[in-house]
Amino acid sequence: MGALLVFVFHVFSLNREIWGGFYQSTSFQLLYKITNHGHVGVSLFFVLSGFLITYLFLNELKTTGKINLIHFLFRRILRIWPLYFLVCLFGFFVFPELPFGITTIHEFWRYALFLSNFDEIYVGLNDNINFLTTTWSISVEEQFYYFWVLVMGVVRFKNNRAFYYFFFGLILVSLIFRSFHTNDERELYYHSLALVSDLAIGGLTAVWAFNGNAVQFIRSFSKMQLVFIYCMGLLLILLENKLNSPVWIVVQRCFHGLFFAFVLLEQVYSTNSFWKADKVIGFEKSGRLTYGFYLFHSIVIFYCAHLFQTYNWTTNVFHFISYLVVVFVITYLISWMSFTYFEQPILRLKNKFR
What we know:
Blueprint: H1 2-13, H2 20-23, H3 26-35, H4 41-64, H5 69-94, H6 108-112, H7 116-123, H8 130-133, H9 136-155, H10 160-179, H11 185-190, H12 192-210, H13 213-218, H14 223-239, H15 246-269, H16 283-287, H17 290-310, H18 317-347
Helix pairs in contact: 1-4, 1-17, 4-12, 4-15, 5-9, 5-18, 7-9, 9-12, 10-12, 10-15, 12-15, 14-15, 17-18
């Protein structure tokens, strides 16, 4: 779901200048204002990641009495590194030699060290290779997990209280950092300390769920109450650009994180849901393709935008709908091939680190 939100956001925002007068039309601008909030899908991605990893840690701690940090690191490497570095190597060394290729001003060493979010802060505004930008959230996530492993290696998390202290501490650090950078949009959007609250909220949610307390809480809501909370959360996201107060800028990320944490719990544990994402046809299968879909979609957007512009298919709503469908289908197919023939064989090695 998070990858889909980011996809829609990028389809409307990246290379939008090719649509000429159509881009200025009332219908396009209305859709753009709505889809311009799709970037919050990254918050959902962070919350979900923090939740899943923490829940697995807690289960391992309960089952074995300890957490094997080496095995965790190898599992992360096998899942994240191959596709991440494939995209980075393509962007830095292959793409410039291809038709329409551009040499990036980003620095490869930062990408190699999972610091691409900082590179985005420094030079992102001056770089035209948008598909390298998508790696920034992967870098933030990797930084978080390696820092967490380092802390656990020193402190040794032996009970749920240690998890609570760690996550609450990260949220506090994030709020303090944001309070000092309320006027710096790029720091707020890309800096690790400005974003870590999402992952921490996901972790706290996992601890709460693992203890069993979250289940009783989420099941106390009626269907109408759930509909109301969804509507209010989505409405606030749509209208948040009108909230420019420093206080809102500081807590904005926490609101996103808490809302998506609620959505996560509701989807997993509620017995009164008015909808379930896993009931959507193809949802489970598509979920396995999410990582590839996220990393590949901006590359496909780049080439499809050039194709449509070359043939002047950029003048009306039919052209744009065709563009949207073509980008989605090609991205999905590439993601499926990547998962089937590249990612999955590597992922089988994770069984050696259980």
